[in-house]
UniProtKB/TrEMBL annotation:
Residues 17-74 form the Agenet domain. InterPro entries: Agenet_dom_plant. This is Agenet domain-containing protein. It comes from the Eukaryota. SMART domains: Agenet (SM00743).
Length: 83
């Protein structure tokens, strides 16, 4: 694979104090980052239900295992458009 098809890691961006319903996130799962969406903010602290795009599963994650999702478009990282 040539370097044109290898993405650099996304930039470090501040993680919100708390995620909100429907935030686009990446969840740390099985040693990698998986795209998903927050489907529920749990009342017992900084835990969330996340619907993972790759397999359709809804799983529970700690705040520390989530980051805001960025899209790789035209060779740069961008925030996803709402909706």
């Amino acid at each position: 694979m040539d370097s044109l098809h290898i993405r650099p890691p996304p930039p470090d961006i501040p993680v919100p104090h708390q995620f909100k319903m429907f935030d686009n996130v990446d969840a740390l799962y099985k040693g990698g980052w998986w795209k998903g969406i927050i489907t529920r903010v749990l009342p017992r602290g900084s835990r969330y239900k996340v619907h993972l795009d790759n397999n359709g599963k809804v799983m529970e994650f700690k705040h520390s295992d989530l980051r805001l999702h960025l899209d790789w478009i035209d060779r740069k990282w961008t925030k996803p458009s709402p909706g």
